[in-house]
Amino acid sequence: MVETVNEHRFRDAFQQLRPDxxxxxxLGVLFNTLEDFEEGMDEPMELDxxxxxxxxxxxxxxxxxxxxxxxEDAMEEYPDMExxxxxxxxxxITEKLNIKTLQHVPSEAFIIQQF
Length: 115
Hints:
This protein is an alpha+beta fold and 115 residues long. It has helices at residues 7-17, 24-41, 49-55, 62-68, 72-77, 81-85, and strands at residues 56-59, 90-92, 95-98, 103-106, 110-113.
């Protein structure tokens, strides 16, 4: 039995179980990426919030990634986004909503599939 989940229900599922793992914008990017993957596989995916939180991580900028992956060693091995993309899936989050101005502003954030 399969239940179709739209972007709103996808976000709700994360907010209920793991509200701090992804930003609002990050969940939108993750949803669209998984939906594209699902269409490419021509097979429905199961929504498992815990598994997705273990498999994917959102970073506000590359500095957070470097800290998570070994500090100075990671800076040398992964000096830029292109180097990270050679090892895993990278999903850029190009804009975020500025809560004070309610305008979209450029973002350095991204989501990766853990490796």
